[in-house]
Amino acid sequence: MSDDMLMHFSSNSSNQSDQSLPTKIAKLEARMAGKVPSVTPAPPVQLQQQHQQQQQQQPIWSSVSSGPKFGPPEELAGSSDSDDDNGGEFLIQANTQKRQRLQENDNSVVIEHLETQTVNDGRQKIGETEETKGGFDTNRKKQGRGRGQSNSGRGRGSKANDQMRSQISVSTAMPSNGQLENSYLKDNRPKEHFRNDDRISLEEELRAKVSILEEDLRKSRQEAFDNHDLCHQLEKELKELKDYEQQMKPKRTKIISDLLISVSKAERQEARMKVRQDSLRLGSVGVIRAGTIISETWEDGQMLKDLNIHLRQLLETKEAIERQRKSLKKRQSDKGDGTDAESGAQEEDFLIQDEIFKSRLVSMKREEEAILRERDRYELEKGRLIREMKRIRDEDGSRFNNFQILNHRYALLNLLGKGGFSEVYKAFDLVDHRYVACKLHGLNAQWSEDKKQSYIRHAMREYNIHKTLVHNHIVRLWDIFEIDQNTFCTVLEYCCGKDLDAVLKATPVLPEREARIIIVQIFQGLVYLNKRAQKIIHYDLKPGNVLFDEFGIAKVTDFGLSKIVEEDVGSQGMELTSQGAGTYWYLPPECFELSKTPLISSKVDVWSAGVLFYQMLYGRRPFGHDQSQERILREDTIIKARKAEFPSKPTISNEAKDLIRRCLTYNQADRPDVLTIAQDPYLTYVKR
Ligand SMILES: Nc1ncnc2c1ncn2[C@@H]1O[C@H](COP(=O)(O)OP(=O)(O)OP(=O)(O)O)[C@@H](O)[C@H]1O
Questions:
Q1: Element containing residue 321 per DSSP (H, E)
Q2: 450-468 burial string, b = 16+ CB within 10 Å, else e?
Q3: 546 lines ligand 1 (CB under 6 A)
Q4: Residue whose CA is closest, atom 28 of ligand 1?
Q5: Does the C-beta of 416 come closer than 6 Å to ligand 1?
Q6: For a disulfide at 558, which of 148, 188, 422, 545, Cβ 3.0-4.6 Å?
Q7: pLDDT tens, position by position, 283-312
Q8: pTM
Q9: Ligand 1 centroid vs 498 CA: distance in angstroms?
C-alpha cells in the first residue's frame, strides 16, 4: 500500500464510525499483493490507540453490563461481512482471547463481586432509612420521594440517579439483535484489552455514586433530625402556650368580671340617682301609720302638683269668662232691640266682646287638653318610676345582689325584675362570652316538701319543653342548674329591649303598622310551636311574656304554663288537667269552664294573640280591662265575652278588625287554630 493511501486511511480512521480499519487495511494489502496473508499484520500503533479510545468512548451502559445484549454499536455489525473473509485467523485470535479471558475470569469474578457488593452496600445504606425492595427501581422510588421532601436532595442525588436511569432506559430500549451480539462476541478483543481499566473506572464511578448517595442520606438524616427537633420545639411551645392560657384564664375571667362589676355598680348608682331625681318631680312612696298598722302610700311630686295648680287656675279663669259672657248676654237682652245708630254701635260692641270670650274659652280648652295630656304622661312616668323603685328595692333585698358567679360561669350583674316565684338577673356567660338572663327560681323555705317537689317538677317540665325550642321568635333556654336545696337557675337568651308590657305602659296605643309586625312575629313563633312533632300550647301569652332583643325582634318567653298536645288528641283539643293561673284578660271562655274539664287546643293561643293585638291597637283590653283578676272570675267577665267592641278612635283597618274578630271567636269549635289563622292575608307579607 502506498504511503498516500496509508495516510488517507489513517486520517479516515479518526472517523469513529469505521472501527474495523485494521482488518480492512490488512485485506486491501493482501489484495494488492494478490494473496491472502497468512498472518494478519499487527495494526499500526495509531490505530490501536484509536480503537482504545473508541472502547473508552462507548457509553457507560456497555461496560456496566457484561451480557451480549449490551454489545458495541452497530459499526461492529457492519464490519461482520469482512470478518467472514478472514474468519480462520479470527478464530485463532478468538481462541487466544478465550484463554486470556479464562485467566481474567478470576479477576472479573472478584470485580463483579465488588460491583455487586458496592451496589448492595449503597442499597443497604439507603435501606436503613427507607424501605428497599431491590434494584434501581427502588432507588428511583426513593429519589422520587426524596424530591418531595427536600429540594437540596434533588440537586445532589438526582444527577447520579438520572445517569443510572438513563443507563437502564437505554439498556431496556436496546433491541436484542442476534447479529449484533455475535459480531460483538467475535470482535471482543479490544474489550478484553480494556476490561480491567473499565472495571476500575466503573468501580470508581460506583464508589462516587455511593458516596453521593451516602452524602444525600446524611443530609436527609440531618434534615429529619432538624425537623424532629423543630417539631419537638413547637410542641413544647404549644404546651407552654396552653399552660399560659390555662394560667391566664382565671386572671382574664377576673378582669372581665371586675369590669362588668364596675359597669354594673355604676349602672346601679345611676339608676338610684335617677330615681331620686324623678321622685322629686314625680313623687315618692311615703309611710303612713294608723295605730299599729304601717302602710305605704304614694305622695305626688312637684310636677303633678304644678300641673294640678295650672289646671285649677285654668278652670277658675274659664269659669270667670263664662260668668262674664253670661252677664254680657244679660246686658244685651236687657237693652232690647234698639234701632238708632247708638244702639247699633252697642250691638256690635256686644258681638265683639262675645267673640273675645268665645275665642278665649277655645284657647283655654286647648291648654286644658295639653295639661291633661301632661298628666297622662305623668301617670306613665309615675308607673315607670314605681316599677323602677320596686326593682331597686327587690335588688337591694335579693340575696344574689352581690355579683356572684354561678356555676363557675355566670357572672350575675343587675336585677332585671322579679316575677311570682323568681328573680331574673342580667348576667354574663364567662365561657361563651355573651349576656344571658339568669332566672333564679326560689322555693319558699316554709313550703312543705311536697310543695317544693311539685314546684321543681313544674319548673323541670317548663325546662324540658323550652330547651327543645329553637326559633327566632322564641327566647332560647341555654342551661339549667341547681344553686342550693331551695334554689335553681335557668339561663335564658338575654333580650335587652323592654318587654311588650313595658312598651304598652310607656305608649299604650301603637300605630297599626307597628302592632301588625309584632303580632306577625308572635304568630310565627306560634306556628313553630304547632308544626313540631310535639305540639305546644303556650297558654300564657300576655304582653309581659313578649320580649324584644336589641334589634327589636319580638320573642315569646315563659313556658311555665305551657301544655304539650298529646298525639291522640281529637279536633276539640286535650283536657285541661291543671288549670294554672294564666292571666285572665288573655284567656278564652273555654278556660273558665267549671262544669266539666275543659278541652283546650292551640286555639287558646289564638284568642290570647287576638286580645294582645286589640290591646296594642286600642290601648285597652277588649274584655274586663279595668277589672281585677278576682273580679273577672267573680263576674264571669270572659264567659260573657261574646263580642268585642271596636272604638271609633284610633282608626284601624278593616283587615285588622277582621283578624281580631276571627281570633276572638267565642265558640272554640268555630275559632281557627294557629296554623289556619296564620294563613290570614293580614299576617302575611307577600307582595301582591
Ligand atoms: N330573657 C330575658 N331577657 C331579659 N329580660 C328578661 C328575660 N326574662 C325575663 N326578663 C325580665 O325579667 C322580669 C321578670 O321576669 P319573669 O318572667 O320572672 O316575670 P313575670 O313574667 O312578670 O313573672 P311570672 O313569671 O311570675 O309571671 C321581667 O321584667 C322580664 O321582662
A1: helix 302-335
A2: eeeeebeebbebbbebbee
A3: no
A4: 417
A5: yes
A6: 545
A7: 998 888 888 888 888 888 888 899 999 999
A8: 0.63
A9: 10
